[in-house]
Automatic annotation (TrEMBL), chain A:
Keywords tagged on the record: Cell shape, Glycosyltransferase, Membrane, Peptidoglycan synthesis, Transferase, Transmembrane, Transmembrane helix
Species this chain originates from: Faecalibacterium prausnitzii
Protein's name according to its UniProt entry: Probable peptidoglycan glycosyltransferase FtsW
Record-listed E.C. numbers: 2.4.99.28
Keyword Iron: no
Topological category with respect to the lipid bilayer: Multi-pass membrane protein
Transmembrane segments: 21-45, 65-83, 95-112, 171-191, 198-223, 304-327, 334-358, 370-392
One GO-annotated biological process of the protein: cell division
Reaction catalyzed: [GlcNAc-(1->4)-Mur2Ac(oyl-L-Ala-gamma-D-Glu-L-Lys-D-Ala-D-Ala)](n)-di-trans,octa-cis-undecaprenyl diphosphate + beta-D-GlcNAc-(1->4)-Mur2Ac(oyl-L-Ala-gamma-D-Glu-L-Lys-D-Ala-D-Ala)-di-trans,octa-cis-undecaprenyl diphosphate = [GlcNAc-(1->4)-Mur2Ac(oyl-L-Ala-gamma-D-Glu-L-Lys-D-Ala-D-Ala)](n+1)-di-trans,octa-cis-undecaprenyl diphosphate + di-trans,octa-cis-undecaprenyl diphosphate + H(+)
Chief subcellular location: membrane
UniProt superkingdom: Bacteria
Cell location: Membrane
Function: Peptidoglycan polymerase that is essential for cell division.
UniProtKB/TrEMBL annotation, chain B:
Subcellular localization, as worded in the UniProt entry: Membrane
Superkingdom field: Bacteria
UniProt key word Transmembrane helix: yes
Protein's organism: Faecalibacterium prausnitzii
Listed name of the protein: Peptidase
Transmembrane segments: 31-52
SUPFAM superfamilies: beta-lactamase/transpeptidase-like (SSF56601), Penicillin binding protein dimerisation domain (SSF56519), Penicillin-binding protein 2x (pbp-2x), c-terminal domain (SSF54184)
Chain ranges of the PASTA domain: 704-769, 772-831
Family: Belongs to the transpeptidase family.
Gene3D superfamilies, per the entry: 3.30.10.20, DD-peptidase/beta-lactamase superfamily, Penicillin-binding protein 2a (Domain 2)
Length: 430, 831
C-alpha cells in the first residue's frame, strides 16, 4: 500500500540573503515596471496640479504625497524581495485573522459617502480591502497549492477515476476548500459595502484557481458561464440601490449617462489620434471628477491621444506577460499561484479601469495601478512587486539548480555509458 | 503477486499530499500561460477597440460636445458714452463700480456645522463672534469711502447700523451661496475688502487653539458693473432721462440715443474650467469692445439753470397743479437751448419720488380725470355713488403714477389746448393765404354766434373795430373767429397740417406722443372751425407750438427741433454733426415779417397790456400770451375751467434768434388766471438773463448815460416787481429766503425806491426780511474796469465807472473790507 509521505518541514529563513540570481527577464520586467511607475507619476502630476491648486491652493498637493509613498513603496518592494516566500506562506493564516479583524474594525469607522472602507493609522488612511486582496492572493495560493492530488498508481493505465471521486476531488478539494476563506471576506465587504472590492477579490481568486489548474474543466466552464451571464448578473444586482444609480448611468445614450462617464468620454474623444499634448488637458480643469484618481486614464487619452493610450496599454501588456512568465517559471506551485494572483490583480484593475473610463463597463471605482493617486495602494502594489522579485529570483535559482542537476545526471550517465563506436573502434587495435 | 481485479481497481489511484517543491505540470503550465497571455491580449484588444471608437471614429463628435461646455464666451462691457452740454460741461457720465457679494454657504469661518449620523443632515450654527468681527470690518470699509479711513467711520450712526445689519444678515444666510453685501462700491473700497478677506483667510488657514482661531474661510467676491452719474441731479432730467439698473437707457436721451451711447460690447472666447473661470488658452479670440459715443447737446446748462429757476418759482408762486414746462429754442435751427418740465426727478435715483411727494400727491388729486384710482368691488367693477360717479379710492397706490408723472417730458408727451397763442398761427394763415393783411379790420361787438353757439372775448369785452395787430394784442376771439371763417375749413386744416400739428415734431427724444387730437378738413364744421381759430378745439403739444411759432417768425420754415448737436467719439472727434433740418416752408417771407410785427406790437415797450410783462428793456421782443380753458377736463373747485397759462416770446423781434416758451398747467393763483400775468413775467425774467448771456442784438438805444429812478417795489408780488425792473432795464436778484416764500410780496429792496441808478443796476429783492443782507467790499484797485465790475457783481455789488473806462481802477467809493448792503453802488474811478 502506498503511504502518503510526510516530508519534513522545509527549512526557511525570514530574510533570504540571496534569493537567487537575477534572470534577464526579471530585469526586463522591473525595467517595464520602472517605466510604468515614472510614466504614471508624470501623468498624475499633469492630471492633478489644477485640481490641487483650485481645491487645495497647492499644485503639488497630490504629487507630493504620491512621491513620498513611491519612496516608501520602493523600500517596501526591496524589503519584500528579500523576505523568504516560505516565511510569508507561514503567515497566511495569522494574516487572514488580522485581515478579518481589520475588516470588522472598518465597519465601525466614520462612513464616507455612505461606505465604511477606510481605517486610520496615525496619519495614514488605509483601504482595508487593499490589504485583504493581498492576503487573499497569498492565502488562496497557499490553499490551492496544498490541495491533495489524485495520483494514478500506474501512469500508463487508461482507466478513469470514477466520476463521483473525480467530482469530489475537482470540486470540493480543489475549488470549494480554497474558496471557503474568501466567503467570509466577501461577506464583510458586502457590509461595507464595497462592490469593486468584491468583484476584484473574486476575480483575482478565480484567476488563481483557473490558471493554477484547480478544478480543471469545472473552473473553466464556470468562468465561461460567468462571462456569458455577466449581463444577466448586472441586471440582478440592479436591486441594490447604491449600485442602481451607477448602472442606470451605464448606457450609450449621452443624455442619460452619469456626468463622470460623459466627461470621461469628452476627455478621451478630445484626445483624438495624437492628443492635446502633455499638460494640455482641459477636462482636468475640474470638468472631469476624480481626474487624478479613477479617471486618470481619460486624461492620458486626452493629452497623449490614441497613440499614447495604446502605448500605456501595451506597456501593461508587456509587463503582465513578463510577469506571468516569471510566475509560470517559479520554483514551485505556490510561487506560481502567488505570481498569477499578483499579475491577475494588476491585469484586472487595468482592464476594469480602462473599460470603465471608456464606458465599456459600468462605473465601479477601480483605480489604475501606478497611475492613480493613492498612497497605500501604491505601497501595497510595490510590496507585491517585491514578492514577485523574490519569486522570480527563487525561480531562477531553482531553474539553475535543476539545470545543474540535469548536467550532473547527464555526466553521470555519460560516465556509465559504454560508447559503442569507441568500443568498436578500439577492437581492431586490440 | 496476483491481485484480484476488484482489489486492483480500488487502488489504481491514490490521494497524494501536495509536494511543496512540485511545480505545475508541464502541460498545465504551457496551457495556462498561453491562456493567460491570450486573455491579456484579448482584454487589451477590447479596450483598444473602445478607445478607437471613442477617439478616432467618434472623436470629432466628443470634441464638439466638450468644446461646447469648455468654451467661455465672456462679454467685454463697452463704456457708455457721456453727455455734454453745448460748452462741454458733463451732464451724464459713467464710472466703474463693484458689487460685493458673499458665498455664505462656503464661508466656513462664520458657522460651525454638525452632521447628524442618522439622517446625514448637516446643521449649521452661526458663530456670532466671527460673524460680528467680519461684518464689522466689512461695514467699516464700505463706509470709509476710500477703504483706508476706518477710524473716521462713525459707528454709532444710523447709516453704519443699517449697513452693518445688511452685511450681518447676508452673511448669516449660510444655506445660500449668493448674497449681495453692497452695490455701487468704488474700487478703493473693493480692494480694501478683498485685502481684508484674504488676510483673514490666511490667518484662519489652520486652527490655532492658543489664539482661539478656528480653521475656516470667508468667501467674498466682487462683480464689476457700471454706474451712471448725473452730477447736477434733478436738472434737465426729462431731457437726459436715465438708465435702468442694467445700464440700458430707459428714458430721455439715454433711451433715444441708446445705441449711440451704449457702444458695442466686445467678446472673448476662451477655454474655462468647471468653476467658469478662464484658463490659459493660446487660441483665445477676443473682439474688442467699441465704446459708446458721446453726445454734445445744444442744451446750455446756464440757460437751463435760468429756465428751471424761474419755472420752479412760478410753479410755487402760482400753485401750478399739473406741472409747468419751458423751452428755449433757436428758431432758425431748431436747436433746443433749454427744455424743462418741473417738478422732475433726480436721474441718479429715478425711482425715488420722495422729494416731490407732496406736490405729486396734490397733483393726482387735483387731476383725477388723468390719474384717478377708483374703488372697485370684488368683481373688479367700479363702485359708484348715488349720482353714478366713480369714487376715488383713498388707499389707492399712486406710486406708479408718481414716477410716471415726474419722468414725463411735458413738452412732448402731453396735449393741451394752446388757446390764444394759436392766434399767431391763425393770423399767419390769413396773411399767407391773402385773406388778411396787417390792415384787415374786423368788428368785435362782444358776442358772436355761430350755429347757436355764442362766443365772447375774455372778460366779455367788446373790442370794436380793430386791425390784426390790435386784435392780437387784445387777444380778440371774435376777430380770429371771423378770420378763421375767411380762411375756410379746408385751407385752415391744410395750414394746420403744414404747421406740423398733425405729426410728431421729430425731436430726438423718446416718447413723443403719437396721439393727436384734431379735426381734419371734413370734420371741421363751423363751430369746430370757430373754436379752432382761437386755439380751443385742437390739442397740441408745447413743442409743436414752439416749432409752429418758430416757423411763423423765421421766414416760414418748419424746422425739426433737436437736443443733440454733435456726436463725438471717445477722443472727442466729431462723428456726426446734427445740423438744422428744414422740413418745409409754410408761409412766405412777407407773411412771416408781418407776424413778427404784430407779435412785437403785443409786447411793445412793456407799457401796454397783452405781452407787456414779458418786456425787457433794451431788447425787441415779440410774443403772445395764451390762457386756454381745458374744456375736456373736470372743472375747478371755483366752477371755472382748469386753465393753462402759456406764453411764447421771440427775440430780437425784427430777426428772431430764439424763442422762449413757458406753460403753466392748471395754475391756481387767487387773483388771476391770465397768462399775461402768470406766464409772461416768467418769460420776461428768463429773457432778462438769457438775452445778455447769448449776446442777442439789442434795440440799439444807448442807455449807458441815462439814470433811472428805482421804483418802489415793497408790497408788490415778487414777479411783478421783477417785471417792473425788467421793463425799466434794471436787473433783479431775488435773495433766497429761508421760508421759501417765493409767492410772497417783496418786503425789502436795495437800492431803495427813488434812488437814481444807472442802466443795468441790480436791485436786490427780499420777501421775508425787512432789512438787507450785507457783503464785504473786495479790493479792486489796480484792476481793469471790466474785471472790477465782475468782481463787484460777484460780491453782490453794483458798480459805476468814472473816468477813463479803459484805464485801471485808481480808487473805489467803498473802502475794501467794509461791510455794505448788497446792491450798494460802488463808484470806481479809473485812469
Amino acid at each position: 500500500m502506498a503511504t502518503i509521505r510526510r516530508k519534513k518541514a522545509e527549512p526557511f529563513s525570514i530574510l533570504q540573503r540571496d534569493p537567487g540570481p537575477w534572470p534577464t527577464l526579471l530585469i526586463n520586467w522591473m525595467a517595464t515596471l520602472g517605466i510604468i511607475v515614472i510614466f504614471g507619476l508624470v501623468m498624475l502630476f499633469s492630471a492633478s496640479y489644477t485640481t490641487g491648486y483650485l481645491r487645495f491652493g497647492d499644485s503639488l498637493h497630490f504629487i507630493r504625497s504620491q512621491v513620498l509613498c513611491l519612496g516608501l513603496g520602493v523600500v517596501a518592494m526591496a524589503l519584500f524581495s528579500y523576505i523568504d516566500y516560505r516565511f510569508l506562506r507561514k503567515l497566511v493564516w495569522p494574516g487572514y485573522l488580522l485581515c478579518l479583524v481589520l475588516l470588522v474594525l472598518v465597519l465601525f469607522s466614520t462612513p464616507l459617502n455612505g461606505c465604511r472602507r477606510w481605517i486610520s493609522f496615525g496619519g495614514f488612511t488605509v483601504q482595508v480591502s487593499e490589504i485583504a486582496k493581498f492576503e487573499m492572493i497569498l492565502l488562496t495560493a497557499h490553499l490551492a497549492a496544498r490541495a491533495p492530488r489524485l495520483e494514478k498508481l500506474d501512469p500508463g493505465s487508461n482507466r478513469r477515476v470514477p466520476p463521483s471521486v473525480w467530482l469530489y476531488q475537482r470540486l470540493v478539494r480543489e475549488l470549494i476548500v480554497p474558496l471557503l476563506p474568501l466567503l467570509l471576506v466577501l461577506a464583510l465587504l458586502v457590509l461595507e459595502p464595497h462592490m469593486s472590492g468584491i468583484v476584484l477579490t473574486t476575480a483575482i481568486v478565480g484567476t488563481i484557481l483557473l490558471l493554477g489548474g484547480n478544478g480543471g474543466i469545472i473552473t473553466w466552464a464556470g468562468a465561461a458561464t460567468g462571462i456569458f451571464l455577466l449581463e444577466t448578473l448586472l441586471q440582478h444586482i440592479d436591486s441594490i440601490p447604491y449600485l442602481q444609480s451607477r448602472l442606470d448611468g451605464w448606457t450609450q445614450d449621452l443624455s442619460q449617462m452619469t456626468d463622470q462617464t460623459l466627461q470621461s468620454l469628452y476627455a478621451i474623444g478630445s484626445g483624438g489620434v495624437t492628443g492635446l499634448g502633455l499638460g494640455n488637458s482641459i477636462e482636468k480643469q475640474l470638468w472631469l471628477p476624480e481626474s487624478n484618481n479613477d479617471f486618470i486614464f481619460s486624461v492620458v487619452c486626452e493629452e497623449l491621444g490614441f497613440v499614447g493610450a495604446v502605448l500605456v496599454i501595451l506597456l501593461f501588456v508587456l509587463f503582465l506577460v513578463e510577469g506571468l512568465w516569471l510566475a509560470f517559471h517559479a520554483e514551485n506551485r505556490y510561487c506560481t499561484l502567488v505570481g498569477i494572483g499578483i499579475m491577475a490583480q494588476i491585469a484586472w484593475q487595468v482592464f476594469c479601469n480602462i473599460a470603465v473610463v471608456t464606458n465599456t463597463l459600468p462605473n465601479t471605482g477601480i483605480s489604475l495601478p501606478f497611475f492613480s493617486s493613492g498612497g497605500t495602494s501604491l505601497i501595497l502594489l510595490l510590496a507585491e512587486m517585491g514578492v514577485m522579485v523574490n519569486i522570480g529570483r527563487n525561480g531562477e535559482r531553482a531553474r539553475l539548480e535543476r539545470e545543474n542537476l540535469h548536467h550532473l545526471r547527464e555526466e553521470q550517465r555519460k560516465a556509465k555509458t559504454i560508447v559503442l563506436d569507441t568500443a568498436r573502434n578500439a577492437q581492431p587495435e586490440r | 503477486m496476483q491481485e484480484s481485479p476488484k482489489n486492483h481497481k480500488k487502488i489504481y489511484y491514490r490521494l497524494r499530499r501536495s509536494d511543496p517543491h512540485e511545480r505545475l505540470g508541464a502541460t498545465l503550465r504551457h496551457f495556462s500561460f498561453g491562456a493567460a497571455v491570450f486573455f491579456v491580449v484579448a482584454a487589451a484588444a477590447i479596450v483598444i477597440h473602445s478607445l478607437y471608437d471613442i477617439q478616432i471614429r467618434d472623436g470629432a463628435q466628443y470634441r464638439q460636445y466638450a468644446a461646447q461646455q469648455q468654451l467661455l464666451d465672456s462679454t467685454i462691457q463697452a463704456t457708455r458714452g457721456e453727455i455734454y452740454d453745448t460748452s462741454g460741461i458733463t451732464l451724464a457720465s459713467t464710472s466703474v463700480v463693484w458689487t460685493i457679494w458673499a458665498d455664505p454657504s462656503y464661508s466656513s469661518a462664520l458657522f460651525t456645522s454638525q452632521t447628524d449620523d442618522d439622517t446625514k443632515v448637516v446643521t449649521k450654527t452661526i458663530d456670532p463672534a466671527a460673524l460680528n468681527e467680519v461684518s464689522t470690518q466689512i461695514t467699516l470699509r464700505l463706509l470709509s469711502g476710500d477703504g483706508a479711513a476706518l477710524d473716521s467711520v462713525d459707528t454709532s450712526s444710523e447709516a453704519y447700523k443699517t449697513q452693518y445689519q445688511t452685511v450681518y444678515d447676508a452673511l448669516s444666510q449660510n444655506d445660500s451661496s449668493y448674497q449681495v453685501l453692497a452695490t455701487n462700491v468704488n474700487n478703493a473700497v473693493k480692494l480694501s475688502i478683498e485685502k481684508y478677506v484674504s488676510e483673514y483667510n490666511k490667518a484662519h488657514k489652520k486652527a490655532n487653539a492658543e489664539k482661539g482661531i478656528r480653521k475656516g474661510r470667508v468667501s467674498v467676491s466682487s462683480t464689476k458693473s457700471f454706474q451712471r452719474d448725473y452730477p447736477y441731479g434733478a436738472f434737465a432730467a426729462s431731457v437726459l432721462g436715465f438708465c435702468d439698473a442694467d445700464g440700458y437707457g430707459t428714458y430721455g436721451l439715454e433711451k433715444s440715443y441708446e445705441s449711440t451711447l451704449a457702444g458695442v460690447n466686445g467678446r472673448t472666447i476662451t477655454l474655462r474650467n468647471a468653476y467658469g473661470n478662464a484658463i490659459a488658452d493660446e487660441n483665445a479670440t477676443t473682439y474688442e469692445a467699441k465704446d459708446g459715443s458721446n453726445l454734445v447737446l445744444s442744451l446750455d446748462v446756464n440757460i437751463q439753470e435760468v429756465v428751471e429757476r424761474y419755472l420752479n418759482e412760478a410753479i410755487k408762486a402760482n400753485n401750478v397743479e399739473n406741472r409747468g414746462a419751458a423751452i428755449v429754442m433757436n428758431v432758425k435751427t431748431g436747436a433746443i437751448l433749454a427744455m424743462a418740465s418741473k417738478p422732475d426727478f433726480d436721474p441718479n435715483n429715478p425711482l425715488d419720488y420722495s422729494q416731490n411727494l407732496t406736490y405729486l400727491d396734490e397733483l393726482v388729486h387735483a387731476e383725477p380725470e388723468l390719474y384717478g384710482i377708483y374703488q372697485k368691488d370684488e368683481n373688479g367693477n367700479y363702485i359708484t355713488d348715488e349720482r353714478g360717479n366713480k369714487i376715488l379710492d383713498p388707499e389707492g397706490d399712486y406710486s406708479g403714477y408718481y414716477r410716471d408723472i415726474q419722468w414725463k417730458n411735458k413738452t412732448i408727451t402731453e396735449l393741451y389746448y394752446p388757446g390764444s397763442v394759436f392766434k399767431v398761427i391763425t393770423a399767419a394763415m390769413g396773411l399767407d393765404s391773402g385773406h388778411a393783411t396787417l390792415n384787415t379790420t374786423l368788428n368785435c361787438s362782444g358776442a358772436y354766434t355761430i350755429a347757436k353757439q355764442t362766443y365772447h372775448c375774455a372778460g366779455k369785452k367788446a373790442h370794436g373795430v380793430q386791425n390784426l395787430a390790435m386784435a392780437l394784442r387784445n387777444s380778440c376771439n371774435i376777430y380770429f373767429i371771423q378770420l378763421g371763417q375767411r380762411v375756410g375749413s379746408s385751407l385752415f386744416y391744410d395750414y394746420f397740417d403744414a404747421f406740423g400739428f398733425t405729426e410728431r415734431t421729430g425731436v430726438d427724444l423718446p416718447n413723443e406722443t403719437n396721439f393727436m387730437q384734431y379735426y381734419n378738413a371734413s370734420q371741421l364744421g363751423e363751430v369746430q372751425l370757430a373754436s379752432s381759430a382761437f386755439g380751443q378745439a385742437m390739442a397740441v403739444t408745447p413743442l409743436q407750438v414752439c416749432t409752429a411759432i418758430s416757423a411763423a417768425v423765421n421766414g416760414g420754415y418748419l424746422v425739426t427741433p433737436h437736443v443733440v448737436d454733435k456726436i463725438t467719439d471717445q477722443n472727442g472727434n466729431v462723428i456726426q454733426e446734427i445740423g438744422s433740418n428744414i422740413r418745409r416752408q409754410i408761409i412766405s417771407e412777407s407773411a412771416s415779417d408781418a407776424i413778427r410785427q404784430i407779435m412785437e406790437y403785443e409786447v411793445a415797450d412793456g407799457t401796454q397790456g397783452g405781452g407787456g410783462r414779458a418786456y425787457v428793456a433794451g431788447y425787441r421782443i415779440g410774443g403772445k400770451s395764451g390762457t386756454s380753458e381745458q374744456l375736456n377736463m373736470d372743472r375747478r373747485a371755483d366752477g371755472d375751467y382748469k386753465k393753462v397759462a402759456s406764453f411764447a416770446a421771440v427775440l430780437p423781434a425784427n430777426d428772431p434768434e430764439i424763442l422762449v416758451y413757458v406753460m403753466l398747467d392748471d395754475p391756481n393763483n387767487a387773483r388771476t388766471d391770465y397768462s399775461s400775468i402768470l406766464a409772461a413775467p416768467v418769460v420776461g425774467n428768463i429773457i432778462s438773463e438769457v438775452a445778455p448771456y447769448l449776446g442777442l442784438a439789442t434795440d440799439g438805444v444807448d442807455r449807458g448815460q441815462t439814470s433811472y429812478k428805482v421804483p418802489n417795489l415793497i408790497g408788490q408780488e415778487w414777479s411783478n416787481a421783477q417785471v417792473s425792473l425788467n421793463i425799466k432795464g434794471l436787473k433783479h436778484q431775488l435773495m433766497e429766503s429761508s421760508s421759501d416764500q417765493t409767492a410772497a410780496v417783496v418786503t425789502y429792496q436795495y437800492p431803495r425806491a427813488g434812488a437814481e441808478v444807472p442802466y443795468g443796476t441790480t436791485i436786490y429783492l427780499y420777501t421775508d426780511t425787512y432789512e438787507g443782507s450785507h457783503t464785504e467790499v473786495p479790493d479792486v484797485s489796480g484792476k481793469s474796469a471790466e474785471f472790477a465790475r465782475q468782481m463787484l457783481a460777484a460780491a453782490g455789488l453794483n458798480c459805476t465807472v468814472e473816468g477813463d473806462a479803459n484805464g485801471l481802477v485808481q480808487s473805489q467809493s467803498e473802502a475794501p473790507g467794509t461791510s455794505v448792503q448788497r446792491g450798494t453802488i460802488v463808484t470806481i474811478t479809473c485812469g
